[in-house]
Design a protein that fits this description.
This protein is an alpha+beta fold. It has a single domain, classed as 3-Layer(aba) Sandwich (Glutaredoxin). It contains ten helices and four strands. It has a four-stranded mixed beta sheet, sandwiched between helices. α2 links the parallel β1 and β2. The termini are far apart.
Amino acid sequence: MGDVISLAQRRRARRPAPSRQRPRATFSFDLASPFTYLAAERAERLFADLQWRPAISEALHRRDLATDPAACERTKALAEERALSLGMPMVWPDGFPDAGRRAMRVASLAAELRRAAPFVLAAGRLAFCGGFDLDEPETLAEAAAAAGLPLDAALEAARDEGRDAAMEAEGRRLLALGADRLPALRAGRLLVCGEERLAEAALAWRSLDGAVAARPLGA
């Protein structure tokens, strides 16, 4: 007599092996930071299905550039140096470093509607290529239009101070994880801070899958 064939085993053998999924990457950003502008387009290209999450920078480094002129000048010098090395324009927007909170509220709406990427890209170009004040209604309207956001909803979000708490909480959450600046890239236990480390983050992320714990690269 022949061997008994298990049909269940045959079916299991024919099933494709489960794919090993990388953990989804999250890009935490602050539109008021020139480094978000410098990083955003590369982040969009380097990470598939990237989740964009607005966060307030002051919650991480515990200082406000608007009240710390020396830190503001250091930030500007570093951003100009990085822009030059990346071949990107850098024009300081009107209102820097004070402006950006209303734009971030619109970014939180864009994230809810899964339109954060085009909004961040458009807002960054308007601010740091065109020199436009991020919080001016005309700037917000143009960035919202580029992202396909309803204009009335975007302008309403810009006035909604209730949105600030969640973005500040995101900054504190990053700080607790070891982040010290934005933008920050997270995937599983992987944490990389600073736009200059995006390529490093992408290489580490590509080596991950759902079955392997990510190693933290630190802040």
